[in-house]
């Protein structure tokens, strides 16, 4: 396959943002980059695939998350590249290419929210609106040295967003600084927060061992700063019991829901998918009810364990197992350990905040704080310790 030019963060088919009335509010003057999975009134939504772009008319209304943020004063500066159909942990796109990582030139940005992260990291946007299904806000946040919030699944509307897997998808935010993230979170989230006091931290050794030794060593000082404020338990998460296979569960349910939502479109229009994405779409078309039942059994086991673990506690883990890979590097070996770290939040719908944690060889790595549903604000409070 011919190597594509490296694009900037923004999709080229949106050259002008339709004017809209200026509004006051806590985000007045904030420049907003919107992942091209979200509908913006008057603009096409491309979802990272040229056939999708060609077979869907421009949006007639804003996605709910877009409407809320712009209603609070943010103004859209562009729509950003996404991994194809958001079906990529690494932001690969065989049709349009993938933006470079402004915080690590020559390396990938990662996640299907890669264009949004690149826009925020390069400084052309202050606030990024992305989506996170399996880590696509958290991973680029960690690899670009940004703050990235995957909110509690129930606290953000997914209306007007091209879905990958409705059970796991959630709009998320990316910023360069914590105060703006706190303000934007206050605008975007619905429902009252869970105000259960955070009494401790859990940093399970078996999850930390998914990260490379250099990453663990680099993040240790940040963990120690947190542990100076709250007791920290580092015993293995799963102990001697077999761990629920949440990576299998994630793959099965994601594939099942993708095909239920998009299978008819795939069969009608026969879109060309890039490597990796095409394989996952083919696997999705063959998912069975027995597989789904088995997957949901594993998800239930994880939810039960997390409800007990995160009662008054925050899970602290590396955002990703390694720094951002170089462009063109083989990312296959990273997929399983990434989902080992990100998949728990995804299948349970937990809020997760990636905080800039350290560098390894000059490349950013993030620390991720994971709480019980509704504790998004508590995670932001805890992150103040690391500023």
UniProtKB/TrEMBL annotation:
Pfam families found in the cross-reference section: Amidase
Domain of life: Bacteria
InterPro entries associated with the record: Amidase_dom, AS_sf
Start and end residues of each Amidase domain: 23-178, 292-380
Classification via PANTHER family: AMIDASE 1
Protein's UniProt name: Amidase
